[in-house]
Amino acid sequence: MQKALHYDLVRVEDYLEGEEASELKHEFIDGAVYAMAGATIEHNLIALNIATSLRSHLKGKPCKVVMSDVKVRLKSLDHDVFYYPDVMVGCDPRDTDRLYLRYPKLLVEVSSPSTERLDRHEKRLAYQSIETLEEYLIVAQDRIEASILRRTNNWSPDNLIDPDKVLTLQSVDLILPVSLIYEGVTLATRG
Questions:
Q1: Which of 52, 97, 119, 160 could form an SS bridge with 109, CB 3.0 to 4.6 Å?
Q2: H or E stretch including 88?
Q3: pLDDT by 10-residue block (mean), the chain, 191 residues
Q4: What is the pTM of this model?
């Protein structure tokens, strides 16, 4: 869960400068700065599996695959917002900043029980405002579930819960087996 770090509003420039010097990551929403919690091994493996597949598939193409240390910058309800998606694909030549992308094509969040509501609601609505975003993928880290939301489908989720199924990322023309997303991940059993 995110916790507000400062109650005084912070300027975008001060936030970006502070992030470069900080050992911790913080998200920024209209002047409020929120410290981010650390990730689990499962979370990291899932993000790495997706990023590795994307990177291999997009090799030689004019797209960048970046992971959770790079921010996405957007305007949501006329507010400046910076999030740290777990994986992003950007192919837009207008993205020239070295700290963030403004024009991603694909965003991926690996959800935990404590971040799922944020990922499925607040971030979903914010991400939909990005003009270049074609797909938003939410992957659960505690169970097999991948939800793909597409602009062409009015952002309605398609949910996959079968490890034998494949996920089609239309934005980058990649077919990704659900089993590959969870490769090497041990999921806790529920009792």
A1: 119
A2: strand 87-90
A3: 58 91 87 85 96 97 95 89 97 96 98 93 94 97 96 95 94 97 84 40
A4: 0.90
